[in-house]
Backbone:
């Protein structure tokens, strides 16, 4: 179907209409005309992907990340950051109207962050290297790929892995730690059942809270913990756990302190805290 994108909606998808159905398409801009293919069809809406760009927006930018559009981590890199802020402001205004029945004609003040290297928390998925997809080779892999692990993020709308060797939105410490852990888990058999690593960095980007989740609890957890600490000396507290939550082993205090807004917040392995 050939459609024209009308606006962006919450989550970053573009909205269009086709034969009475709302069509939602990722990685597009308002006023762009595209040829789209349906990937999911319900009674009143269609989720689609771009087959061909027929008329691109003059606002369209080249994404900084080579994995953008494949990796499911980012939605807006095809839009310049200042333009993103404009669209996000209008999405908020529309959300107030649609869900809150609030018409807000006044200005909405935007408190923008740095667009890159800002994220203080990340979840990295681990899967066997022969199951991982990437547009780049995993340079950490050695030997039998079926026994090695790759780290990355889930692909967009998928639970299959997009293995990456860079991530421009991570804080410098998180990126450095990711690269070290990526190399480590590709090389050590002890990590074979690893499924996920979650890392959280302090505000000054010097210490890490790390949670490693395994499909089966590692028999030599203490040895594995030491290998993690050697690879990433910034780890201040490390939790190794089974995917069900039990058993688990804690190596460290179980929390770090995060300074924000003139206050010090104690953040534990299972705490929620903003990523920005």
Residues:
């Amino acid at each position: 179907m050939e459609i024209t994108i009308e606006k962006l909606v919450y989550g970053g998808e573009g909205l269009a209409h086709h034969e009475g159905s709302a069509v939602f398409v990722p990685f597009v801009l308002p006023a762009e005309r595209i040829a789209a293919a349906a990937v999911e069809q319900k009674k009143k809406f269609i989720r689609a992907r771009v087959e061909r760009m027929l008329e691109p927006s003059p606002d369209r930018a080249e994404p900084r990340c080579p994995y953008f559009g494949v990796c499911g981590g980012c939605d807006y890199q095809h839009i310049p950051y200042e333009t993103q802020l404009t669209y996000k402001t209008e999405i908020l205004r529309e959300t107030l109207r649609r869900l809150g029945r609030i018409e807000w004609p006044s200005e909405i003040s935007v408190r923008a962050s740095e667009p890159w290297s800002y994220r203080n928390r990340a979840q990295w998925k681990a899967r066997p290297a022969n199951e991982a997809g990437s547009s780049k080779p995993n340079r950490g892999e050695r030997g039998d790929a079926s026994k090695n692990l790759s780290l990355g993020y889930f692909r967009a709308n998928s639970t299959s892995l997009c293995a990456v060797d860079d991530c421009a939105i991570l804080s410098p410490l998180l990126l450095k730690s990711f690269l070290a852990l990526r190399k480590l888990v590709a090389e050590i058999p002890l990590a074979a059942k690893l499924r996920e690593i979650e890392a959280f960095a302090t505000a000054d980007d010097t210490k890490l809270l790390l949670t490693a989740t395994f499909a089966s609890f590692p028999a030599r957890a203490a040895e594995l913990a030491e290998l993690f600490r050697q690879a990433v000396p910034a780890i201040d507290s490390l939790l190794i756990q089974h995917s069900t939550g039990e058993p688990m082993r804690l190596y460290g205090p179980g929390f770090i302190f995060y300074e924000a807004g003139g206050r010090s917040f104690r953040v534990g392995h299972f705490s929620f805290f903003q990523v920005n």
